[in-house]
C-alpha cells in the first residue's frame, strides 16, 4: 500500500511540474552560487599566497622582523561556498604593534580592509546556506503547502480514505515522496555545481580534507529540507484551505528565518551588553603606558638612591661600566629585575583584560546562539558556517593565534632583549639573535573535530526538529477531518 | 460608481482581520527595529567617543604622532542606521598611520574593528527598516494582492460584480486603492510612532545635515517599493486563473527578485569589470615601495663610497645634501607610482560600480536597498567621503610632520634628522559628512526607476484585467 501511494505522490509532483521547477531552479542556482563563491575564493587565495610569499621575503631574519614588525595572515576559507558566515568581518591578520622590547610584544588584530565589492556586502552572497534556507525553503513550501489540504479541497482525500488505506501510510508516503523529489533536485544541483567548478578548475576539493566538511554540509542541508518539508506537511494538515496553509507557512518561514535569528542578537545584547574590541585595545594601551611610566619612575628612583650609583655622572658611569665595576653590574641586575617584575605585572594585567573581555563576548555569543537555536534555519546556518570554517570557531582560533604569536615572539625575541637606563641614557644589552630566522606563526587550521564540537548541537537539533515536525504532522493528519 | 466601489472595498478591507494583523505587525516590528538600531548606534557612538577621547589624551603633540602611536582618524557611526545598517560593519571607521621611522611618506591604513563586536549582528543581519520593508512589507503586499483578481474569479464574485454596469477600470482602481491603504496606513502609522520614539530619545539624527530630507526620501522610496510589489501582485493575479498559482508565481518572483538577482548582480559586475582587491593593491604598493627603496639604497651606497672619511669636510657635507636629493627624488617617484596605481584602481572601481548599480536597478529590491544605505550614510558614498578625508589628512601629516623626519645614512651608521616642530599640537582629523545634495543626486535615478516599476506593473495589471476572462 505504501508503495502505491508513494508512487502516486511521486507521479503527481512530477506531472504538476513542481519537481521540474525545483530541478531547474536547483540546476541553475546552486552551480551559479558555487561558481561565484569559488571564483571569489580562488582570487582571495591567490592574493593570500602572494602576500605570504612576499612576507617571507620581507621578514627573513630576526633583524628584518625588528625593522618591519611581525605579521601572520589568515588564509581564506576553502569552503566559503557552504556559507560565507562572518569571514568578511574577521581579522585578516595578526601583527605586532610598535617595537618589540623586553616588555614583550604587542600583538593586535589587523582588520584593515578596503571595500572590494560594496554590493556583495550590501546584497549578500549566494552561498549554500542562503540557497537552502531561502530559495529551497520556498520550494519546499510550494511542495508541501497543499499536500494534505489541497487533496481535501479537490476531494481526493475523502475518496482515498473511503478505501481501506491506513492514514499513517498516507502521511508517511507523502513525506517520503516529497522528500525523495526534493532530495533528488537538491543533490542534482549540488552535483552539477561540483562538476561545473571542477570543469572550470576552481573546485574546492583541491584543498586537502575538503570532502568531509562538504559532505557534512550537504547532509545537514538535506536534513533541514526534510525537517522543513515535515513542517509544511504539519501546516497543511492543520489548515482548512491551501491559501491559508501557504500564508501560514510563509509567515512561519519569515519568523524562523529572519525574526528569530535577528531577535536572538537583540535579546543577547540587551541581557549581556559588552564593551567594544576598540575600547579594550585602547584600555590595554593605557595600562601599557601607565606601566611604562611606573618603570621609568622606579628606575629613576633606583638610580637616585642606589649607593655608589646615585652620585655618579654619566661619563663616570660609562667609564666604570667599561671597567666592569661590580656596582654597575649590580645596578644593571637590579634594574633588569625591576623591569622583569613590571613586565610580568603588565602581561598579567593585559591577560586579565583580554580574559574578562573574552568571557563577556563568549557569554553574549552563547546567549545569542542559544536563542537562535529555537529556529531550525539558524541551526542549519550555524552548522554550515562552522563546517565551512567561516564562523565563530575561526574567530576563537584567531584569538588563540594572537596569543600564540605573542608567546613565540616573546620567547624568541623579547625575552632575549634587555634595556638599561641611566639618567638620560638608554643602552641595549641582551643577546638578540639578529641573524636567526624570524619567528613565524605556524598556520594551524581549526580541525574538523573542533568545528564539529561547535555544531553537533545544531545537527542534533535539526534532526530533532525533523522528527518533531513529522510526528506532529502525523498526529495532525490522523485527526484530520477529510470531509 | 468609483466612489461606491471604493467605499465598499475600503469598508471590507478595514473590517477584515488582515488590516489589524498588518497594523499590529507594523506597530511592533518597525518601532522595535528603530529602538534596537538606536541602541546599537548609541553603543557604537559611545565606543567612538571613548576611542577619540583616549586617542586625544595620548596624542597631544606632534612628538606623540611621530614617536608614539602615530596619527588616527575616526569616522563616527551614523544615527540614521535605523533606516539601513548598510555597510556599517564593513566600511572603515578608523585610519591609522603606518610609518617607518625616518622613511616618509607615511600611509594611512583603513580598518573596521567593529566586526568582532558585532559578529552575530553581521551573521543574522540587522533589524533595520530595510529588512522590515524588503522582506515583511513586500510579503504582505504579495499576500494582499495574489487573490485580488484570481481569487475573486475563483469565488465567483468577480462575475457577479461585472455582470452589473461596473467599469472594469474603476473596479480595479477601487480595489487597488483600498488594499493599498490597508498596507500603507499601518506602515505610515508605525513610522510616525518610530519618529515619536526618536524624538522622545533626544532625536540623535538632528545633528546630521539634511537628516529629515534623507528620512523623507527613504520613506518615499519605501512606499514606492511597497507599491511596486503591490502592483506586481495585481499583475500576476490578473494573469492567472486561480489564487494558488498566483501565490506560487509571486513567491518565486519574490525569491528571484529579493534573493537571487541582487546576489548575482554584484558578482556579474565583478566578472564583467574586474577590480583588483584591496589586499592585492596593498601588496603591489608594498612591492613597489621595496623595489624603489632598494634602488635608492644602491644609489646611496654608491654615493657613500665616493665620500671622504672626514665628516667635517665640505665634500662630506655636500654628500649629505646629495643624499637628501636622492631620497627626495625616489620619494617623488614612489608617490607617483602609488598615485598611478591608485588612479588605475579607482577608474576600474568606478566602472565596476557604475555597472553594478545599473544591473542592480533592474530589480525593485536592489533599487530600494542601495539608495536606502546611501540615505542612511552607511553606503559607498560614505566610504568614498571618509577615504577622501583620510587622503587629505595623510597629505597634511606628511607635509607637516613625516616629510620633516628624514633619515641620512653615513658610512658607519644612520641618523634621523627631524625638523618638525615636535612640541606643536597634534593635527586633528575632522570628519566631513557627505553633503545631502550629493546623496539626493545619487538616489534620484532610483526613485525614478521605482516610479517606473510602479507604473509598468500597474499598467500591466490594468491591461491584463481589462482582457481578463471572468468566467
User: What structural class results from the helix and strand content of chain B?
Assistant: mainly alpha
Report the uncertain regions of chain A. Answer: none
Classify the oligomer. heterodimer
Largest interface (CB < 8 Å): A-B, 93 and 87 residues
Gross morphology of chain B is elongated
> What does the main sheet of chain A amount to?
3 strands, antiparallel
Assign an overall shape of chain A: elongated
How does this model look, in words?
The complex is a heterodimer of chains A (483) and B (471). With 483 residues, chain A is mainly alpha-helical. Chain A is 70% helix and 5% strand. Chain A has helices spanning 2-15, 18-58, 62-68, 118-123, 128-144, 149-153, 156-162, 167-199, 211-238, 242-271, 277-305, 314-322, 326-372, 376-388, 392-412, 448-478; strands at residues 71-73, 93-96, 107-110, 417-422, 425-430. Chain A has a three-stranded antiparallel sheet with strand order 1-2-3. Chain B has one domain (1-275, 364-471). Chain B has helices spanning 2-15, 17-58, 62-67, 119-124, 129-145, 150-155, 157-163, 168-200, 211-239, 243-272, 278-306, 314-360, 366-375, 380-400, 436-466; strands at 72-74, 94-100, 103-111, 405-410, 413-418. In chain B, strand 4 (405-410) and strand 5 (413-418) form a beta hairpin. Chain B is elongated, with a radius of gyration of 30 Å. The relative contact order of chain B is 0.15. Classes of the chains: A mainly alpha (483), B mainly alpha (471). Chains A and B meet through helix 2, helix 4, helix 5, helix 10 and helix 11 of A and helix 2, strand 3, helix 4, helix 5 and helix 10 of B.
